[in-house]
Specification:
The protein is 82% helix and 0% strand. With 128 residues, it is mostly helical. Helix 1 (5-15) crosses helix 2 (19-27) and helix 3 (31-84) runs antiparallel to helix 4. The N and C termini lie far apart (88 Å).
Length: 128
């Protein structure tokens, strides 16, 4: 019996790991014919898994890219902190927190945490 391409593809899809013997039994074809079908159509069967895997990797890369950008912002802010030597100068740390929020897009809470000042101190001095 001759099978159409879509019929052969369906047999290969159903085959899973026991492909050759399954196709032989279900389609009534020889071992070499079953192997030829698998060789011809296996990529079509596996493609959705590969595409899903690629999509997941792309999403992971986007997350890593966001984390990398956040690290770069942290680095720039900390570099400013170290260059200005303001570890003991609370007013200077507040000024750097303002810069982190306004120039680098940091959340106020994170800038205050990294510069070791309270949000209350930050807000009281920035809203006057």
């Amino acid at each position: 019996m001759r099978y159409k391409d879509l019929e052969m593809l369906d047999f290969v899809r159903l085959a899973s790991k026991e492909a050759v013997s399954f196709i032989q039994n279900e389609a009534g074809v020889s071992e070499s014919r079953a192997q030829a079908w698998i060789k011809k159509y296996w990529d079509h069967v596996r493609r959705p898994d590969t595409l899903r895997k690629l999509a997941n990797e792309k999403n992971d890369l986007k997350i890593k890219q966001r984390e990398y950008k956040a690290l770069l912002r942290s680095r720039e802010m900390l570099k400013d902190l170290l260059l200005d030597g303001c570890q003991n100068n609370r007013a200077k740390r507040k000024e750097l927190a303002k810069k982190a929020v306004n120039s680098y897009g940091y959340p106020i809470s994170r800038a205050c945490e990294e510069l070791n000042i309270s949000e209350g101190y930050y807000r009281s001095n920035t809203e006057k």
